[in-house]
């Protein structure tokens, strides 16, 4: 089906991605991630000693602070903080540094999750796997497009932010393990939807999102690998 | 938790309550292996749900919803305001969710609960996404006056599945809503009190016929916990604190997916798990729809 998007992309195409790490000198890890015109900066400080009052001292805790570029901190920011915190908690190995707090400070959702992961890698926090985030929207007639711009988002019937684990690049010949008949990278870590859509549309978006997450994983892997030789020489 | 062998030895001598406190995960997993939960529910059954309408007499619409012990009180007040310039023939709905310290020992005065703004935002997203309220219906005089609906939801007892109970009480309160009569008085909208009937013949009510909102697709939700291969419907707060991965599915009466909310969590959701959650939600929607219908007809008889 011919779809005319404002910038001429086809429904499955993502905007140009760019990622740069270690841009802030004082932070333990930092990354800036941009998809088209959306740009997010993430900084990681930690692990620091001590946990907040209600947190479990047996595990490391992650704290997320979301600072909007303009305006005051309100409810949308708190919600994003909690979603981001729970997503990151599921991917970091929390038992390694118990009784510590790692702070992640973000200044925009899908972009923010990708930037936060890159910043955590830059800081050297141990993780089970990385997470890649993608946004899919579903339009009136049932077709879905990926990675919408702000204008496209508002015109759509419904959209979903999905976060998948990074695909495993296995050195061993048997390849990735299957869980319940599906490869591990098909599981959803986080899903937040806005707008009503039918159940089938949602599953459609899930499939498209999974396919695109493979591309995003490759990009993330390439841009982080290029950092490694440089890091060894950094004496900090 | 660290010591599996110790718990095996101790479990024969320890009291049930002590085992429950010290090794909560093993306590629950023992139950899950038999496909049952500590409160004798099966894995896919929700707790007893009740709705009572008109709980707050001074509000324009109100409802008290209970799912098990989780109790939510929703109340609606309406006020006339001038609509914004971008949408001159639409009213506005403002939703606020409060968790006062009465609801849980974890919420203390002076420190707002972490869950409160999240549930509030989820509620306002869900109610606007579902199209239940048509904002154009809230308009009184195009461009000059429209209704502002303040919906306040108070959590009176927080025992898990907060979003489900809050959504149910909000929907019930909207079903119970009676729009107050207003009349045009020298170009200003004035609220008419209920009793004056014969004397004020010059103050004709502007909206005499239209007293109830027509509700579009009504959203109902179910929260499930994912733990290894199990899916538990309608968790209590104890279950939520031990097994942290929650999925909330909101469907409306025409089985459209209004929202699928999974905010991270250690367990990944595969397609089969998502489909199971959606199937459980479909069943729950039918139950909740019936409970709501009974509550509405109970009110009308009075």
UniProtKB/TrEMBL annotation, chain A:
Q: Which domain of life is it from?
A: Eukaryota
> What is the name of this protein?
Exosome complex exonuclease RRP46-like
The species this protein was found in: Citrus sinensis (Sweet orange)
Automatic annotation (TrEMBL), chain B:
Name a single GO biological process: nuclear polyadenylation-dependent rRNA catabolic process
Enumerate the Pfam families for this protein: RNase_PH (PF01138), RNase_PH_C (PF03725)
Q: Where is the Exoribonuclease phosphorolytic domain?
A: 46-180, 217-279
Q: What InterPro entries has UniProt attached to this entry?
A: ExoRNase_PH_dom1, ExoRNase_PH_dom2, ExoRNase_PH_dom2_sf, Exosome_comp_Rrp42_subfam, PNPase/RNase_PH_dom_sf, Ribosomal_Su5_D2-typ_SF, Rrp43
Q: List, alphabetically, the GO terms of the cellular component aspect.
A: cytoplasmic exosome (RNase complex); nuclear exosome (RNase complex); nucleolus
Establish whether keyword tRNA-binding is in the entry. no
Keywords in alphabetical order, please.
Cytoplasm, Exosome, Nucleus, RNA-binding, rRNA processing
- Where exactly are the transmembrane stretches of this chain? none
Compartments where found: Cytoplasm; Nucleus, Nucleolus
Which molecular-function annotations from GO does this UniProt entry contain?
A: mRNA 3'-UTR AU-rich region binding
Q: Which family does it belong to?
A: Belongs to the RNase PH family.
Q: What's the name of the protein? A: Ribosomal RNA-processing protein 43
Species lineage: Eukaryota, Viridiplantae, Streptophyta, Embryophyta, Tracheophyta
């Amino acid at each position: 089906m011919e779809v005319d998007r404002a910038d001429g992309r086809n429904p499955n195409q993502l905007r140009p991605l760019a990622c740069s790490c270690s841009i802030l000198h004082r932070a333990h890890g930092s990354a800036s991630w941009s998809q088209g015109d959306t740009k997010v900066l993430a900084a990681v400080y930690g692990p620091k000693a001590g946990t907040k009052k209600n947190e479990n001292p047996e595990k490391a805790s992650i704290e997320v602070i979301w600072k909007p570029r303009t305006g005051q901190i309100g409810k949308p920011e708190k919600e994003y903080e909690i979603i981001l915190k729970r997503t990151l908690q599921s991917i970091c190995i929390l038992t390694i540094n118990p009784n510590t707090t790692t702070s992640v400070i973000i200044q925009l959702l899908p972009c923010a999750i990708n930037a936060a992961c890159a910043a955590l890698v830059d800081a050297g926090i141990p993780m089970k796997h990385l997470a890649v985030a993608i946004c899919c929207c579903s339009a009136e007639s049932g077709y879905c497009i990926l990675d919408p711009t702000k204008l496209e988002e508002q015109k759509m019937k419904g959209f979903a932010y999905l976060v998948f684990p990074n695909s495993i690049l296995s050195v061993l010949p048997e390849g990735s393990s299957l869980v319940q008949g599906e490869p591990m990278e098909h599981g959803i870590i986080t899903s937040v939807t806005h707008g009503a859509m039918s159940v089938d549309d949602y599953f459609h978006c899930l499939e498209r999102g999974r396919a695109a997450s493979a591309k995003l994983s490759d990009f993330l892997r390439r841009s982080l690998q290029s950092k490694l030789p440089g890091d060894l020489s950094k004496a900090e | 938790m660290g010591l599996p062998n110790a718990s095996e030895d101790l479990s024969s001598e320890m009291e049930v309550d002590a085992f429950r406190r010290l090794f909560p995960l093993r306590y629950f997993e023992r139950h899950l292996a038999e496909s049952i939960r500590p409160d004798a529910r099966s894995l896919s059954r929700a707790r007893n749900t009740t709705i009572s309408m008109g709980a707050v007499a001074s509000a324009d619409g109100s409802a008290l919803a209970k799912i098990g012990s989780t109790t939510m009180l929703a109340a609606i007040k309406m006020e006339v305001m001038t609509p914004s310039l971008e949408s001159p023939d639409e009213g506005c709905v403002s939703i606020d969710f409060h968790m006062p310290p009465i609801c849980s020992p974890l919420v203390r005065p002076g420190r707002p609960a972490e869950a409160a703004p999240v549930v509030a935002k989820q509620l306002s997203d869900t109610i606007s996404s579902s199209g239940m309220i048509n904002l154009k219906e809230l308009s009184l005089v195009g461009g000059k006056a429209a209704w502002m609906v303040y919906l306040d939801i108070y959590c009176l007892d927080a025992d898990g599945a907060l979003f489900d109970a809050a959504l149910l009480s909000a929907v019930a309160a909207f079903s119970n809503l009676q729009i107050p009569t207003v009349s045009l008085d020298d170009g200003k909208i004035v609220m008419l009190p209920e009793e004056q009937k014969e004397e004020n013949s010059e103050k004709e009510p502007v909206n005499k016929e239209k007293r109830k909102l027509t509700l579009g697709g009504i959203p109902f939700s179910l929260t499930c916990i994912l733990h290894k291969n199990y899916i538990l419907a309608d968790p209590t707060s104890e279950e939520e604190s031990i097994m942290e991965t929650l999925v909330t599915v909101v469907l409306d009466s025409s089985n459209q997916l209004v929202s699928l909310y999974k905010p991270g969590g250690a367990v990944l959701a595969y397609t089969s798990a998502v489909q199971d959650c959606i199937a459980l939600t479909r069943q729950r929607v039918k139950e909740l729809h019936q409970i709501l219908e009974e509550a509405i007809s109970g009110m009308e008889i009075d």
